[in-house]
Amino acid sequence: MKQSSILKGQRTDAEGELRKYKTRKSQLEAIRNNLNSDFEDSARSVTNHCNNAKSDMSSGINLNGRNVALSSLFWNEEGISDSDLSQSRSYIVSEINAVQTKISDLEREIGSLNSRITAAEDKEKEEMLEKLKSMFT
To answer: Which of 28, 35, 34 has the alpha carbon at shortest distance from 85?
Structure first.
């Protein structure tokens, strides 16, 4: 089998793998974008509802002859955070970076294979010309 044919087969395999990784990256980016938009919108909505409730409760109630704000009984001033969501985002970003690294490696490999294919085809043409010359001399 000719060297250029072997290299073309390798290039075809690399291009297939590249398509697979680009699809994976697109899927991961869609997940990341959904996490960023849907969950943040929901979190904002919950925070707004909590702030409204806190504001409504700020007038307080009379407890044992003292005025006590309900917010001091129920509200956590530290804020709301979802560590699982944060870890998920971190994992997805790490996975996107790993996939992008693989995509870059495959693109370099395909570029190298293209150069090697051109060189192999040039060499094969030279060899064919030499054979033809030797047949007629």
So the answer is: 35
